[in-house]
Design brief:
This protein has a domain of 121 residues. It is 69% helix and 2% strand. The chain is built from 13 helices and two strands; from the N terminus they run H-H-E-H-H-H-H-H-H-H-H-H-H-E-H. Strands 1-2 form a two-stranded parallel sheet. It is globular and about 70 Å long. The model has no long low-confidence stretch (mean pLDDT 95).
């Protein structure tokens, strides 16, 4: 990292570009880049992509701190507000998503009484205010999705039709295949697993080899009652993830499904 910083300094010096405030057009592009970096830092902190720990709290906390600073300087920018709201509404669930042994606890199984209600209230207030300020952007939509989850006292009270509609808007806005993956989950919750599995077919190429595609297929096949297919996809996902807690969770699902096949209910 030190070498990269040194090389960057040398390129700046050699370019002879004068130091000045950006123009209005430049500011828009630069702010978009800043927000994207903060988003990536938070995501890596909330769900570490590799290693023995499920989360890196220091990263997500720093991302929130920096985003609060940006929001303090640009309080009227709806996407800055949307990103901050998204972080708060997501981080509110952190106390319940890690089990006593550091294991992953999926959203549907979390003890929602452990969610941080102060963060939820703050995040909802921020996104509600941001929606009054004009065009809705991708971070605002993601914050609305997170807020919809957070407002459900129980998993079976989640407003999945609303989430499905928001993911539809977000996918049209971004074209991001990971958004399409999440939309398939929402579609399965609304219209049944066959609907979700059908949407996944279009993601075979853009998400080829990504463990989350197999993980979602496993989940939807289990919803459909096909435990053999579910176990195979969970096994494939476990072999592709670099996160040890997630790998352990997926292999546990394989074992659970195999046990259910060997000992069906009487």
């Amino acid at each position: 990292m030190a070498q990269r910083i040194s090389r960057a300094k040398q390129r700046i010096k050699a370019s002879a570009v004068p130091f000045r405030m950006p123009t209005a057009d430049e500011r828009i592009d630069r702010l978009r880049s800043v927000l994207h970096v903060l988003y990536l830092i938070f995501n890596e902190g909330y769900f570490a992509s590799a290693g023995a720990e499920l989360a890196r709290t220091e990263l997500s906390a720093e991302a929130i701190r920096l985003t609060r600073a940006v929001h303090a300087g640009l309080a009227d920018d709806p996407e800055v507000a949307g990103l901050l709201a998204l972080m708060l509404l997501t981080d509110a669930r952190r106390p319940a998503r890690i089990g006593p042994m550091g294991e992953l606890v999926p959203l549907a199984e979390q003890d929602r009484t452990r969610w941080d209600q102060a963060l939820i209230e703050e995040g909802l207030a921020i996104i509600t205010d941001a929606l009054t300020r004009g065009v809705v952007g991708e971070y605002q939509l993601q914050a609305l999705i997170a807020g919809t989850h957070d407002q459900a006292a129980r998993a079976d009270e989640t407003d999945w039709p609303h989430i499905l509609a928001l993911y539809g808007l977000l996918e049209r806005m971004t074209g991001n295949p990971m958004v399409a993956l999440n939309r398939a989950i929402a579609a399965a919750m609304v219209d049944g697993p066959a609907a979700g599995l059908a949407l996944l077919e279009a993601l075979d190429e853009p998400l080829d080899g990504h463990y989350r595609l197999d993980a979602v297929r496993g989940h939807l096949h289990e919803m459909a009652g096909d435990n053999d297919a579910a176990a195979e996809h969970f096994r494939a996902a476990a072999g592709r993830t670099s996160s040890i807690p997630e790998r352990d969770y997926l292999t546990t699902q394989v074992a659970r499904l195999r046990t259910a096949e060997d000992h069906p209910p009487t």
